[in-house]
Amino acid sequence: MSEAALYDILFIDRSQNCPTPLPTPNDIDGSEVLPNRPGSARLVRIQQRFIVKFGAHVRPIEAQNMLYVAKSTTVPVPKVYAIYQRREKQSTVTYIVTQYVQGTTLMDLWGSLDRARKTSIAKTLRTYFDQLRQLEHPGYFGNINGGPPLDDIFSATQGANEIKGSFATEDELTDWIIRIYSLEIGECADSKTRYYQHVLPNVLRTDGTPIFTHNDFQRKNVIVQDDGALVIVDWEFSSWYSAYWDTRRQFLSGFALDGFFITAIKIYRALLSRRR
């Protein structure tokens, strides 16, 4: 029998309500693999009670975001049970153990819902965003640990390696976004730079207050449980951003012409109006 691989425990839930025994990285083999986007983190389900998300690109801060939201709001998020890390070949692999939330994604349900149910869901989601936007900000634009925001633009683009920390003001955030786009090469690079030079400081300018933002609000990240309750998942890009950030993400993510985009924009419009 081969010796079990060693791993580090970064966090573990020691409350009396925590189910035991918790799975570890050594329990992954043979577990049910769940479908996910190609090239993204792997997901496995264990005993119909746990989900383990793991991979070299999984970051502990995703779980820390969920712990923060659970502690600071009543927004339903998966319960975080443990965070592990271990070395595998040349990479550090992070494992996030959460509760298995049984239900159906809003993406799969949306087309079958009547107008009244869609409106009800939108109102519920709006209350969740209200809570996130009312959180006391830390005085900077960045992640909850004081580093750069977790959006891909600050980690997967040219110039991103020059960013070492958070941004003190919205103007500083805007200047860096424009700088990052100005370093891009390829088709339409110059046009994109000119577009953001105009839109960010003028059209999308806010009162400068950092807002805690999910930053990947799509139907696939809303689980509708059998009793109708909603749970929001996938907090890996969440940080303190400008008030418009989730709206921007909706445009970049693309949308189907089935009414959801308009519903989402109505939620954001109502929230943005409260900031003015």
Features of the shown structure:
globular, alpha+beta, Aminoglycoside_PTrfase, Phosphorylase Kinase, domain 1, Aminoglycoside 3'-phosphotransferase, Chain: A, domain 2, 2 domains, six-stranded antiparallel sheet, 7 helices, AGP_Transferase, 276 residues, single chain, 11 strands, three-stranded antiparallel sheet
Mean pLDDT across the residues is 86
What ranges have pLDDT less than 50 throughout 5 or more consecutive residues? Answer: none
User: How many β strands by DSSP?
Assistant: 11
Named CATH architecture of the largest domain: Alpha-Beta Complex
CATH class membership of the largest domain = Alpha Beta
Question: How would a crystallographer describe the biggest sheet?
Answer: 6 strands, antiparallel
Structure description:
It contains seven helices and eleven strands. It has about 280 residues and is α+β, with helices and mostly antiparallel strands. It has two domains: about 10-100, Phosphorylase Kinase, domain 1 (2-Layer Sandwich); about 105-275, Aminoglycoside 3'-phosphotransferase, Chain: A, domain 2. The strands form three sheets. The protein has a six-stranded antiparallel sheet, covered by helices on one side. A three-stranded antiparallel sheet has the order 7-9-10. Strands 8-11 form a two-stranded antiparallel ribbon. Helix 3 (about 115-135) runs parallel beside helix 7 (about 260-275) and helix 4 packs antiparallel against helix 5 (about 190-205). The mean pLDDT is about 85.
Secondary-structure blueprint:
Layout: E1 8-12, E2 32-34, E3 42-46, E4 50-55, H1 60-72, E5 80-88, E6 91-99, E7 104-105, H2 106-109, H3 115-133, H4 170-182, H5 189-203, E8 211-213, E9 222-224, E10 230-232, E11 239-241, H6 245-253, H7 260-273
Antiparallel strand pairs: 1-5, 2-3, 3-4, 4-6, 5-6, 7-9, 8-11, 9-10
Helix pairs in contact: 3-7, 4-5
